[in-house]
Design goal:
- There is one protein chain.
- With about 150 residues, the chain is mainly alpha-helical.
- The protein has a domain of about 70 residues: Winged helix-like DNA-binding domain superfamily/Winged helix DNA-binding domain (Arc Repressor Mutant, subunit A), CATH 1.10.10.10.
- The protein contains 7 helices and 3 strands.
- A 3-stranded antiparallel β-sheet has the order 1-3-2.
- The model has no long low-confidence stretch (mean pLDDT about 95).
- This is MarR family transcriptional regulator.
- It is found in: Cytoplasm.
- Its main location: cytoplasm.
Length: about 150
């Protein structure tokens, strides 16, 4: 049986706790667990909540613009929107200006859900136990990291 030993210094790059990807992944898992009961009260999944956040900002957005905003491809987004439409949160319709485009609009129920969701960000801030300026800075840093990685990948 192999004995426990300390890795040589050059192996530090391969330690799990030194991996940025694992820190982001495990933080994402923790965040999803935090959101789960908050969103169950609204009868939303996390991806549905993200769609609602975007539509509460800009109602009447095209499906392609919505996908770009959420970093989702149409194969993922279309079934999600169909389920949300079936549950009465939104409706989709062809653009009057360009029939190739499909636009997404909140239903009255979808607009009303915003009032029920308004407390969610405060719950997340409270659970984080971080000052709001620190959370805003961290969010900006993560967005910048995402953008840098995306630019390097393309």
């Amino acid at each position: 049986m192999p004995s426990k030993r300390t890795l040589p210094a050059n192996d530090a790059a391969l330690r799990l706790d030194n991996q940025l990807c694992f820190a982001l992944y495990s933080a994402s898992l923790a965040m999803t667990k935090l959101y789960k009961p908050l969103l169950e009260a609204l009868q939303l999944t996390y991806p549905q909540y993200l769609v609602m956040l975007v539509l509460w900002e800009t109602d009447g957005m095209s499906v392609s613009a919505l996908g770009e905003r959420l970093f989702l491809d149409s194969g993922t987004l279309t079934p999600l929107l169909k389920r949300m439409e079936a549950s009465g949160l939104l409706h989709r319709q062809r653009s009057a200006q360009d029939e190739r485009k499909v636009e997404v609009f909140l239903s009255p129920e979808g607009r009303a859900l915003k009032a029920k969701a308004i407390s969610i960000p405060a719950c997340v801030v409270a659970a984080s136990a971080c000052p709001i300026p620190e959370l805003m800075s961290l969010t900006g840093q993560i967005r910048n990291l995402r953008d840098q990685i995306s630019a390097a990948h393309h």
